[in-house]
Amino acid sequence: MSGVLLGFCGLVVASMVATAHAADRAPPYGQELEGIDYPYPLQHFSFTSQGSTLQMAFMDIAAKGPANSSHAPQIQDPARFHRALLDALVR
Question: Is pTM, for the whole model, over 0.85?
Fold first, then answer.
């Protein structure tokens, strides 16, 4: 039993060291992912939800050519879609 515990502790320490090294190499992004070079200008939308003022950043990219619905997902059975989505997220 103590060998298993010792092995587990070793894995935890190794994971912590790897995380610390990754943090040293990580780019300095801010809370709102400042520092990322976005390919299009960011716009901001402020709104209130559950008593808190929130802000969302987004890129509004104009379509090239005439609009059509061939790129929009068609969900015929929403319940089946949600089950499949949840199954994929849980794996």
Answer: no
Lowest mean pLDDT across 11-15, 34-38, 51-55, 80-84: 11-15
Question: For residues 74 and 58, is the Cβ–Cβ distance under 8 A?
Answer: no
pLDDT tens for each residue of 74-90 = 677 778 878 888 888 88
| C-alpha dist (Å) from residue 67 to 23, 41, 62, 63, 70 | 43, 22, 10, 7, 9
Pair 41, 58: CB distance under 8 Å: no
Query: How would you label 76-90 residue by residue, b for 16+ Cβ within 10 Å and e otherwise?
Result: eeeeeeeeeeeeeee
Q: What is the pLDDT of residue 30?
A: 81
H-state helical runs in 26-90: 78-90
Under 8 Å between Cβ of 59 and 41? yes
Give residue 65's region: left, alpha or beta (phi > 0; psi -120 to 50): left
